[in-house]
């Protein structure tokens, strides 16, 4: 249950983020939740298989994101990007392939593990809530992947026109192309190596295409969320607290990183104002110093 909620919360948070690296990091957290979920169901070999295939296309995704951020002069805001495929076609092509593999596009690396995981979930005796978490999180994955591609590849370039965007780093391109090939054929190769005796999974037609339907709905939702008009954006300000609640993983930073950092700092500031700059200091050391100084000045007049 905890791993399923992690998968769901990370996917939901990624749909409200505009930081490129944070979106990919939340995507990694969501996939880790998927691995832990399937591991808790007893499919340890399947969890390891998804770990290996996920490493291939997620490494490609991080390298492409690093190249884009470097060309954007360390800007990570996807709202500042746009039409990157015109100036960085090779990197953006590999970036899109990695995103499709993450979504489980048929015959890419992520398809072999994700489709098998969801089919095993349908065959297993899981409750309705866990079943909902698995498939809704899959839809969220497609949603934020489509949103990421929409912001970075379409529309106008919104950053400074002085930024020279190019694909001229051969070291990066060599590594990216190698990972792109592995993201395409790595899933099938690993499935042949790890599952020597393939098992036939028989499901009804409506359950067999359920994964495809969820992916199509997730992509449609990603398009609708990004292609909204200014009127709906302004109306969305009324629900800012709800958006912040969903985007911050249900106030998790307040309980973890932000709380650990902010609360001790506020306590230190309060102690500084109460003791070092408070009444005890005023009537203590500071008052004694001022009285002695006044007495010495008074004695110097005689």
UniProtKB/TrEMBL annotation:
InterPro entries attached to this UniProt entry: NADH_DH_su5_C (IPR010934), ND/Mrp_TM (IPR001750), NU5C-like (IPR003945)
Any one biological process term the GO annotation gives: ATP synthesis coupled electron transport
Record's bilayer topology term: Multi-pass membrane protein
Catalytic activity: a ubiquinone + NADH + 5 H(+)(in) = a ubiquinol + NAD(+) + 4 H(+)(out)
Annotated compartments: Mitochondrion inner membrane
Keywords: Electron transport, Membrane, Mitochondrion, Mitochondrion inner membrane, NAD, Respiratory chain, Translocase, Transmembrane, Transmembrane helix, Transport, Ubiquinone
EC number: 7.1.1.2
Keyword Repeat: no
Domain (NADH:quinone oxidoreductase/Mrp antiporter transmembrane): residue spans on this chain: 2-141
PANTHER family associated with the record: NADH-UBIQUINONE OXIDOREDUCTASE CHAIN 5
Biological role stated in the UniProt entry: Core subunit of the mitochondrial membrane respiratory chain NADH dehydrogenase (Complex I) that is believed to belong to the minimal assembly required for catalysis. Complex I functions in the transfer of electrons from NADH to the respiratory chain. The immediate electron acceptor for the enzyme is believed to be ubiquinone.
Name the UniProt record assigns to this protein: NADH-ubiquinone oxidoreductase chain 5
Taxonomic lineage from the root: Eukaryota, Metazoa, Ecdysozoa, Arthropoda, Hexapoda
